[in-house]
Amino acid sequence: MTGGVPIISLRQVSKRYPGGFEALRLVSFAVEPGEMLFLTGHSGAGKTTLLKLIAAIERANGGAVLVNGQNLSALRPAAIPYLRRNLGLVFQGQKLLFDRSVFDNVMLPLIVTGQPYREAARRARAALDKVGLLQREKANPCALGRRASSDCASRARW
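RESULT FIELD:
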């Protein structure tokens, strides 16, 4: 532990959905600045639920979710976009715009949230570099791989 405030902290967090399905029960952990973690588990283990709680897409039924020391249960709805500006999440069901390049898809949320173009472009290229796609920034998402290609083929049929 670094002695500072964890960037993400869950304390005894539980999430139950209507109908009684318990996705998370009493989950606790902390992510310190500079740490890298991998979230793994079988289908239905609660991985996506956990990420949705961290991004304030959903609320926990119990416990505390803190991001940069901010308790998300106390967060007003108007403050959620500001929280999300410091997070980057990509879920399995990518929502890509197939009429735009890879670069344009990464740029879109930055521009929509008011980032200056130069800063947004710098951040977008840094993100693409981090995941090994900088050399493909001008490519159409359909050209990226098997999953994207099948998504493109599905859309082409319509």
